[in-house]
Design goal:
By secondary structure, this protein is of the alpha/beta class. About 35% of the residues lie in helices and about 15% in strands. It has a single domain, classed as Aldolase class I (TIM Barrel, Alpha-Beta Barrel). β4, α6 and β5 form a beta-alpha-beta unit. Bound molecules: indole-3-glycerol phosphate.
């Protein structure tokens, strides 16, 4: 499996930093807020189910967002977000575990911990409702999935092609995200989701990740089968307030 080669230099550097981060000695135990039912509730209430992401910066973004993450999170929930995602990677995304704690305390929707988790002990750095596991970086995906579930976490397994999808399903993933951004070159293409989605079983909660900029993109991902949409840049860097940007994406278009 390709866990090292063919990665953008920024991604290789992120993984190196992740391996070097200290890990806590104590295990966490969490009682998660349920992500699939939060998405279903948003849909039942007539909204597009959106997981809105607090991401101060990224290898493909200029500058750092200095606004208070808790204020951003409240704006996202007020704008109809079904759940939130908080980056905890410090060196390349400006994230922190403290931010995740503060956001999770301030809202009552499920909160995803977005990070590059490579070994079991890294799971213990923070409480969250859901953790992201990136199939491409985990040789023992099944072992990490089990370790996360033992601690109470729900798990979003990220894939970006059919082969990774098969690995995720074999490992027992029940929430799968298809990342439209290719980690080999950081380029976004919404066709990635469209090509993988038809192969995902109906009983799996399916999330479209990255590159969803406007309501037309959102409608396109929903038509292709997304149960939820993970959106960062379109909400935190859009023209209006975070609340208005979120509402624009959580409001269905007439034809969707
Ligand atoms: O800002 P965007 O294009 O809306 O993307 C959000 C999210 O999908 C993206 O931040 C992401 C998807 N998978 C990741 C893995 C690690 C870090 C970040 C990500």
């Amino acid at each position: 499996m390709d866990s090292q080669g063919e990665l953008a230099p920024a991604v290789a550097s992120i993984l190196e930093a992740a391996r070097a981060r200290p890990t806590p000695a104590e295990r966490v135990a969490v009682t998660p807020r349920d992500l699939p039912s939060a998405l279903a509730r948003a849909e039942a209430a007539g909204r597009v189910p959106v997981v809105a992401e607090v991401k101060p910066t990224s290898p493909t973004t200029e500058g750092t967002d200095e606004r208070d993450p808790v204020e951003l999170a409240r704006g996202m929930v007020a704008g109809g977000a079904a759940a939130l995602s908080v980056l905890t990677e410090p060196e390349h995304f400006g994230g922190s575990v403290e931010t995740l704690d503060r956001v999770r305390e301030a809202v009552d929707v499920p909160v995803l911990r977005k990070d590059f988790l490579l070994e079991e002990a890294q799971l213990d750095a923070a409480e969250a409702d859901v953790v992201l596991l990136i199939a491409r970086f985990l040789d023992d995906l099944e072992g990490m999935l089990a370790a996360a579930r033992e601690r109470g976490f729900q798990v979003l397994v990220e894939v970006h092609d059919r082969e990774e999808l098969e690995r995720a399903l074999d490992a027992g993933a029940d929430v799968v995200g298809v990342n439209n951004r290719d980690l080999a070159n950081l380029v976004v293409n919404l066709e990635t989701f469209e090509s993988v989605a038809p192969h995902v079983p109906d009983d799996v909660t399916l999330i479209a990740e990255s590159g969803i900029a406007d309501p037309a993109d959102a409608a396109r991902m929903r038509r292709a089968g997304a149960d939820g949409l993970l959106v960062g840049t379109g909400i935190v860097r859009g023209g209006g307030s975070v609340e208005a940007n979120t509402r624009r994406l959580t409001t269905p278009m007439d034809d969707s």
